[in-house]
Amino acid sequence: MPINVNDPEYLKAELEYSDTKNPEEKLSALNKMISHAPKHKGGENLRQQLTQRRKKLEGEIEKKKKKGKSGKQGIKKGEMQAVIIGKTNSGKSSLLKKLTNSDPKISPVQFTTKEPTVGIMNYKDSPIQIIEIPAIEGENFERGVVHTADTLVILIKNFEELLEITKKIPPHQGKEIVVVTKSDLLTPEEKRKLFAKMQSKKYNFEIISTLPSLHEDNIEELKKKIFDSFDVLRIFTKEPGKNPEKRPMILKPNSNVRDVAEKILKGLSKKIVETKIWGPSSKFGGQVVGLNHKIKDLDTIEFKTR
Ligand SMILES: Nc1nc2c(ncn2[C@@H]2O[C@H](COP(=O)(O)OP(=O)(O)OP(=O)(O)O)[C@@H](O)[C@H]2O)c(=O)[nH]1
Ligand SMILES: [Mg+2]
Fold it and tell me: pTM here?
């Protein structure tokens, strides 16, 4: 039986609690509720519920603190994330601006970028998160973002910088793409030599320029390299009788139809009565397949549910 609490301080705290999504604010409101909850025997259940809720909330806050060390504003990691790493003035912000919708400050002054800066690069309708981290030799460099990134774009102005930087890059799982920028400052002969050197060392690399006037800047080639580095499957879903969604869902390699359904909504795979598939993994368009059917990049899937 829920009891009726009339204490105005309690009711105020309860409103505060439900009005905020911020866990710290929630906890402070909850503490007020606990201190104003009825002390008599009839309030025992309520007090117990509140202290249980507090325990859970404290656990969540603690977990968030441990995890949230990446990025001062706590950047939520995208499904495909690349970070741009390089020395100051190498042109990181210029590249971020060229690849994405963001408008970072670009300047010949050193250490202009002081915190991780995010932009979204739309590649064939898939949003890719690109982050510029402050210069690697400066005090604002963020190791945490590098640990978890899917791809590292190592930005350099010349080959010597690469040797210098690689010593400083923290441990990471992400794939590396080496990008030499400001190629407009090189003679054709210098460019040719650099290309040969990068190729002989078997780097996954691109030589670019972010100057707006340039035709052969290789920016499109770099976008493709970044996208290819993620190793994901793009899947279009559709409802019966409707057109497929324009934006693909992103799945890991080796996923099957069940994984797609569960990604849409946990438990959905149990409600499916029929799945049809079009595209690379189908024998013919509209083939009916089971939950264990392995999907391929650019498949379209239609679920009929109960
Ligand atoms: N010639 C030439 N200049 C470039 C190119 N890319 C960037 N620059 C110039 O290099 C300077 C530094 O560029 P930023 O993009 O601010 O460099 P950053 O790596 O973000 O530097 P910080 O954030 O200060 O560490 C600016 O004056 C840019 O205009 C390029 O492709 N060619
Ligand atoms: Mg910058």
Answer: 0.74
